Amino acid sequence: MTAELTRGQNHPLPRTRLEIRVSAGTPIVAGATLGDEKGTVHGVEWVAHPGTPTLPGLEVSRQAAADHRLAVDLDALPDTVHRVSVLLALPAGGQGPVRFGAVAAPFVAVTDLDGDEVASYTVTGLDRESAVVALELYRRQGAWKVRAVGQGYAGGLAELLTDQNLPQAHQLAGTIHEAVARGLARSVPAPPARAADADRPRQTAAPAHGPDHGAAPQGTPGPVPPVSPYDDQSTAGPQTPGGPGQHGTQQPYRGGTGDPAPAGQASTPTGGGPIDYSHPRRQNAAPPPPPPAAPPAEPGRPARPVAGDATGWSMEERLYNQVWGMFEDLSRTTAAYRSAVDFADSRMEKELDQALSDPRSRIGGQGDAAREAARARHDQLVSQAREVLDRDVAQLVAEAEVVEPALPAAFARWDNPVWHAYRVPMEIPMALRLGDLHLPEADRVRIPLLMRLPLERGLWIDSGRSASLDGSLSDSHETRRLGLETAVAHAARLLAVYPAGEFTVHVIDPAGAGAQPLAPLVQTGVLAAPPALGAAGAADVLARLTQRVDLVQMALRGGAPDALPPGVDTSQQLLIVNDFPHGFDDRAVNQLRYLADEGPAVGVHLMMVADREESAGYGPLLDPLWRSLLRLTPVPDDHLADPWVGHAWTYEPALVPPGSQVLQQVLAQVAAARRSWGG
Fold it and tell me: What residues pair up with 375 in beta bridges, in sequence order?
């Protein structure tokens, strides 16, 4: 199964003989650098580029092209090499684009010798950069992994190589561009198109979002396919693929006129020759189609919803986009309804004021008739708005009924049957479900609250009395128990969706008051250590996590993220803090604030179960702490707002159904996988 990486994610490499395939909508330069344990490139002889395409265990393309194949044999690399960085750059001094923001996002895939993808990465987010470190293969504890980097450089290859501590960076960048220029000069144009090819209709997809920036410029000579030592030495004819558009939409080939080709019609390339319309990350022409649609709806009725009916290259991405599309749809239709009701109210008030201010309306029954007419018009406007809202809500309810059963475990409720078929994953999902959201006008629709992974901020489970929406929970002990149960459910879900050994949970429970809610984590053995008790236990855990943050930050600042002391746990860390501020002195409070501010960037996250009023004695000292955390509640509460119109959404936590054993079953599998991985 292919791991579709996002920036910063890594994935293990099961083979040592690999190909790195690069695809772009315009000719680019591909190269690679070899680094030591600190990532330092010691000289030009450690760089593979078109002028020097072959190094021990590594071979790159000999010139600029829209597609590249880089051959890598990790076993053949020198023992001093611990990192292989894949570089992409736009040719300098030519007629092509000068920044990656003007072309389609390059796609990079690591494959085995059979062509099966191990991991892939689309290098997005580039603008003025003309060179980028796309991927890096790195050695850790004797095993090789691949990481998506996506670090761009506006200064081009010279700035990129300088950043890798290469003394001769500027001279080497000039040498590379000279070699590329010589390669372009001797490249062979594509042969003229055959009549049969010209007459054959080509099936393309129309652009959905703006112009196509990924097509080859007019007059660009056909690229010479790179040669891999693992391939047959025969080469195929040159091809110019069309580039992907925004949101993964396949764009048609753009000819020299600058106009997009109409959908379903043949494009006429200026250079002649066949054109490959396939997306660089797929072998077929178009992005993966949505699942087969349900039978067509009756005439006059809306189409029946389909799970995964959204853009995306994987079903997980489609479902994620579909969920947030539902969230936006419900937000906007509710805003329209509320606006219509406000308009009806203001119009009725204006008409009533006019009726009361006219003395003639007080004679006979004219005033009563005017008031009745105003109320009737108000009721009519509200009724019309409600009909539209009910129609939209009914469509969203129908969509939720097909989407909810199709969600993967990370997106699903605990009562979803997908958890009964749970297996410890091999890769991190896009997001995690933290609960449900709904609005009072559409109480039937529950929208999953999905939070992207890895976490970018900590979580605060508010155990105060104000967390109860209706004020029914006045027992502080009950709210604390519910708060810790909510934290355990969230922590268990995080443990369940991460691969074995890549997520570690610590608990600070100074008074030992959370023994019962913490039992699922303690009894299954998924915690890094038993919950820390007392002030001494809290101080020990905070000191170790603070030291980890410091070490990783120093390694990153030194340009050697893998140069960590032996024994440092490099997995993502989660610290659950119960009953704050009990058991915390001033030093511990400062350490906690430090972890909340600096931890998420280096993989250390907080989950606080606390009542803010109980820490009021610290004054404004803790205000930054609460602001840095995402506030959630153990009971329904309307405290979350959307970014479009600012609705107050009611949040309901994702809790395990009463009497269900699904949490224990999932955690038991996580514990077994951790033991197997550790062994």
Answer: none
**What tokens were used for 547?**
């030291």
Q: Is 435 helix (H, G, I), strand (E, B) or coil?
A: strand
The packing angle between helices 169-185 and 156-163, to 10°, is: 140
Tokens, residue 341: 């009701």
Q: How far apart are CA 533 and CA 514, in angstroms?
A: 11
Q: Is the pTM of this model over 0.70?
A: no
Q: Under a CB-based contact definition with an 8 Å cutoff, are residues 4 and 313 in contact?
A: yes
pLDDT-derived band at 371, boundaries 50, 70, 90: confident
pLDDT digits (tens, 9 = 90+) for 519-542: 999 999 999 899 999 999 999 999
Share of the chain above pLDDT 90, in %: 39
How, if at all, do strands 503-508 and 572-580 pair? parallel
3-state secondary structure of 33: strand
Cα 348 to its chain centre, rounded Å, is 48
What radius of gyration do the chain's Cα atoms show? 30
Q: Residue 250 corresponds to which tokens in the numbers above? A: 């396949």
- What distance in Å separates the CA atoms of residue 27 and residue 433, rounded to the nearest whole number? 41
Q: Residue 521 corresponds to which tokens in the numbers above?
A: 């984590």
Contact (Cβ atoms closer than 8 angstroms) between residue 424 and residue 499: yes
User: Residue length, the chain?
Assistant: 679
What is the distance between the alpha carbons of residues 282 and 274, in angstroms, rounded to a whole number?
18
What φ, ψ does residue 611 adopt, rounded to 5°?
Answer: -105, 120
Phi/psi zone of residue 288: left (φ > 0), alpha (ψ -120 to 50 degrees), beta?
A: beta
Residues 649/469, Cβ–Cβ less than 8 Å: no
Tell me the three state secondary structure of residue 652: strand
